Amino acid sequence: MVGIYKITNPKGQAYIGLSKNIEKRFQSHKKLQFKGNVKLRESLVEHGGDSHLFEVIEEVNISTLGRSQANNLLQIRERYWINHFKTFGGGLNANRGGSGCGSHTAESKRLIGEANSKPKPKDFGANRKKWQHTEEFKAKLRNRSSKPIIVTSLDGKITKEFGTQIKAAKWVGVSPNILQLILRKKPQSGGKIPTSTKGFKISYKS
After folding, report:
1. What is the per-residue pLDDT across 91-132, written as a single tens digit (0 to 9) for each?
2. Which of left, alpha, beta for 66 (phi over 0: left; psi -120 to 50: alpha)?
3. Rounded to whole angstroms, how far apart are CA atoms 152 and 85?
4. Same-domain check for residues 21 and 109
5. Does 198 lie in the same domain as 136?
6. pLDDT number for residue 14
7. Mind listing the pLDDT tens digit for each residue in 34-66?
8. How many domains are there within the chain?
């Protein structure tokens, strides 16, 4: 699916992005397999990918456009939605989007008009619903509280409680990614599930 997507964390902070393969992009975000955008990465590490709401907010038909024209149109629409949802400054976007494009030029307006005037395929938007959630689920995400992190030394003499994974990882002296692997019980290459690092056992507060 081609278009513009929105990722919202449990605090209500949102990120707007563009992609020519949104389904694949969603998976790369959840697995932290992307570069740049420190704000989005920190949010995904702190709350976990499954705690974020992933939505397609606009499908863009680029089937009749060349590569340059398609990229230009996607950038224009990304910039529009970033401005609409105010995700730069108050959200998770690090810039205004659209590769710095400004107001619509005559060429930009022409491209948008041409793209919107052409008939859309019969199955256009058919897969959109699978990336959206019910209002009940959205409300649950908004009201969700992050679980405190408990860090205990292996000898049991030190026990610390942290409100976020980032704070806990900083105190232990490891990257948030390592902490997340332990908390989410992700098996390592040998199949063993890690429970501790640097002499500390990591777990969510019961």
Report:
1. 999 888 865 444 445 555 566 566 656 555 555 555 555 555
2. beta
3. 41
4. yes
5. no
6. 94
7. 877 888 999 998 888 888 999 999 999 999 989
8. 2
Q: Which domain holds residue 127?
A: 3-142
Give the end-to-end CA distance of the chain in Å, rounded to a whole number: 40
Contacts of 65 (CB under 8 A, 6+ apart): 73, 111, 114, 115
Three-class secondary structure of residue 155 per DSSP = coil
Whether residues 155 and 93 fall in one domain: no
**β partners of residue 59:** 3
**pTM to 2 decimals?**
0.54
**CA pair distance 124, 105, nearest whole angstrom:** 27
138 plus 183 within the same structural domain: no
102 lies in the same domain as 198: no
DSSP state, residue 108: H
C-alpha–C-alpha distance, residues 192 and 20, integer Å? 37
In this structure, the dihedral spanned by the alpha carbons of residues 64, 68, 60 and 140, taken in order and rounded to 10 degrees, is 160
CATH number (domain holding residue 96): 3.40.1440.10
Query: What pLDDT band is residue 6 in, cutting at 50, 70 and 90?
Result: very high
